[in-house]
Amino acid sequence: MSATIKDVAKLAGVSVSTVSLVLNNKPRVSEKTKRKVLRAAEMLNYYPNLMARSLVKKRTNTLGLIIPHTANYVFSFPYFVEIIRGISNTVRSFGYRLMVSTTYAENQKQSSYLQIAREHLIDGFILLDIKLRDERIIELKREQFPFVLVGKDPWAKGISYVDPDDVGGALRAMRHLINLGHERIAFLNGPLDYMVSFDRMKGYRIALAEARLNYDPQLVRHGDFVQESGYQKMREILNSSVDFTAVFAASDLMAMGAMKAIKEKGLRIPEDIAVVGFDDIPGAAFTDPPLTTVRQPIYDIGALAAKILIEILEKKRFKEEHIIMPTELIIRRSCGFKRD
Amino acid sequence: MSATIKDVAKLAGVSVSTVSLVLNNKPRVSEKTKRKVLRAAEMLNYYPNLMARSLVKKRTNTLGLIIPHTANYVFSFPYFVEIIRGISNTVRSFGYRLMVSTTYAENQKQSSYLQIAREHLIDGFILLDIKLRDERIIELKREQFPFVLVGKDPWAKGISYVDPDDVGGALRAMRHLINLGHERIAFLNGPLDYMVSFDRMKGYRIALAEARLNYDPQLVRHGDFVQESGYQKMREILNSSVDFTAVFAASDLMAMGAMKAIKEKGLRIPEDIAVVGFDDIPGAAFTDPPLTTVRQPIYDIGALAAKILIEILEKKRFKEEHIIMPTELIIRRSCGFKRD
DNA sequence: TTGAAAGCGATACCAA
DNA sequence: TTGGTATCGCTTTCAA
């Protein structure tokens, strides 16, 4: 078995308390004994048992990431992986660890994430894929367990979150289309129970209003962010008699689905229909034609969320933080040039 | 603070040992005291502190997932998410938890995954994205820390792994192309330091041999699995003077990149060049034309790897297990029909 | 500056 | 069938 603090103490010829002091970089230890201890630890290949440490400290230095496995769209999101990367790198750079957990526990009465919290395995949660009146937010608040959101909840006071500028992103995409001369722009939005969808709708409508264009409900549909729904909803619009010359999709994946439907109708992109997406996932540059889209700083969003949570846990931050990260329009070829 | 086992004991009017017996479903406890204890636990909203439990049990019931953040391709892989899903669902159904960890620790001397192992935070590892002579395998073996691979390592004896049938998958893809009448088939393979690449190459060559076709090194290139490399390598072949009528890409993402390059040359898919991919990621059905590809049971691979590791840890399994999961050819439209 | 001892919250052995 | 107690490996007073 691996060495314990006692072994180190014995080898160094000091007490365990001293070893603990040294290993935790506390002051008031003489240079000489410090060296002795360090050398002993080194020789024995000693690593503290974090279970034992957490038991007394009542903190595990571990964050939990809750991924809702119901929302299968999250898992199709290439950007989900990018967020994990941002989170996990940050977490580690602060000396923390990351535990992932899904919302449901099949064959178990308890939601597994709550279980993990109650069993003292983690210090705080990062929530992804936030819905309107998200049950996780309600439950964690009730249990008074610390957490931050990637995504926003307008009703949640006292809760910190990091989110892309959805309104601004949608606005930018729409202005681009409008500047290109489009006046009838279909909108493939996300599900109605996501705040994201409201924000992107807001951007859509502001842009229309700015340009004194009418809002036509026949032009908007709600999908679930993945290709298939983009495809279906686009077909619906295509098969109805409404006319339009452009589509704004609330995700790149839906934009891809829409492109497929458009092509199947024998229409050309961008000549007949222009398309804009949202996210700028890696595949966006490889659609045919390459997709013009709104880029969100996904990695940074994850990283920042993790940082904020850690600062809250370490009591370096007391007020809630609501951070809106900037988005950027990436112009490729799916919108073409100005219409006459 | 939350209730401890002592609180429960006090409220139920029994000893802590009895509470422990009840809560762990040990026999030899009278129904009556069992009920008392359960009710007390319920009332106090008691959940055992897993830190304390792990300390005495010397097991954490937590598995670690090592994701190499150097290999940025992993993160672009939509399938990576699917694997996590398989792993995390399985892990939970066995009452385990999942901790994710990356290979490198910037600003830290230690690889963070080793750190986690040494600090007794997890019981075993699942490794993804296995390279030839993968350093993680070497290190974990040296530390005698339990782990399983998603992917194979031909030299690693005593190590269990789960992997798709790469040889067979490649073979199936190639036979399809050959049956369609193709004789000059380009191969966009993965990096040379991956066993996967060797296996897919093996499938490629077996298929050629079967059909008595020549192996032409000018037709093969090694990319890194993501779109950009498929695009670049396809261009290289296109710009060289070699002729070919089909491409087999070792990943769907590379196939997408290749399609872009082919279209840019003004060639049609599948009329001029047929394309087959590997993976069957969600986006494969939405390329233009929809991609014919080899499907791997990604979710199941993750699930099985987790299950095997848990069985090893629980000493229900002693021999190493080498499982090759079947692949399946999904025919869409990127290969067209038989050539004359 | 160092050491002894209590305690974190559980399990498990041994008695009763 | 139940209870007392040592123990897991560490941190943290408190004394020396």
Annotate the secondary structure layout:
2 copies of one chain form a homodimer.
Chain A: H1 5-12, H2 16-23, H3 31-44, H4 50-57, E1 62-67, H5 72-76, H6 78-93, E2 97-102, H7 112-118, E3 124-127, H8 135-142, E4 147-150, E5 160-164, H9 166-179, E6 185-189, H10 195-210, E7 220-222, H11 227-239, E8 246-249, H12 252-264, E9 274-279, E10 292-295, H13 298-313, E11 322-325, E12 328-330
Parallel strand pairs in A: 1-2, 1-3, 3-4, 4-5, 5-11, 6-7, 6-8, 8-9, 9-10
Antiparallel strand pairs in A: 10-12
Helix pairs in contact in A: 1-2, 1-3, 2-3, 6-13, 9-10, 11-12
The first copy, chain A, binds a DNA duplex (16 and 16 nucleotides) through helix 2 and helix 4.
Question: Could you explain the architecture of this structure?
Answer:
The structure is a homodimer of 340-residue chains. Chain A has 340 residues and is of the alpha/beta class. Chain A has 2 domains: 186 residues, Response regulator (Rossmann fold, 3-Layer(aba) Sandwich), CATH 3.40.50.2300; 138 residues, Rossmann fold. The first copy, chain A, has 13 helices and 12 strands. In chain A, the strands form 2 sheets. Chain A has a 6-stranded parallel β-sheet, sandwiched between helices. In chain A, strand 6, helix 10 and strand 7 form a beta-alpha-beta unit. Chain A starts with a helix and ends in a 10-residue tail after the last strand. In chain A, 49% of the residues are buried. The mean pLDDT of chain A is 91. The interface between A and B is large, with 58 and 58 residues. Strand 2 of chain A pairs antiparallel with strand 2 of chain B. Chain A binds a DNA duplex (16 and 16 nucleotides) through helix 2 and helix 4.
